[in-house]
Design a protein that fits this description.
- It is a single chain.
- The protein contains 2 helices and 4 strands, in the order E-H-E-E-H-E.
- With 67 residues, it is an alpha+beta fold.
- A two-stranded antiparallel sheet has the order 1-4. It has a two-stranded antiparallel sheet with strand order 2-3.
- The longest helix has 5 residues, at 16-20.
């Protein structure tokens, strides 16, 4: 199983990561970051594959993947 860490302050809310996650483990936040933008959040349910697709598509390198 994997786990991801998303830097919410760097995230600009493009949500490309949400569209590529095969398990739907990333969602749009309900809060805002310091720049006033919604950011992506990891849903911690233990189903993450650690496939790194989210990190690969992130244009701002906000996501770290741990296996």
């Amino acid at each position: 199983m994997g786990k991801i860490k998303i830097d919410k302050q760097k995230c600009k809310g493009c949500f490309l990561c949400i569209s590529v996650c095969p398990k739907g483990m990333i969602k749009e936040s309900s809060g805002l970051n310091k720049r006033g933008l919604k950011y992506a959040e990891f849903i911690e349910r233990g189903e993450c594959l650690g496939c790194s697709m989210c990190a690969l598509v992130c244009p701002d390198c906000c996501i770290e993947v741990y296996k």
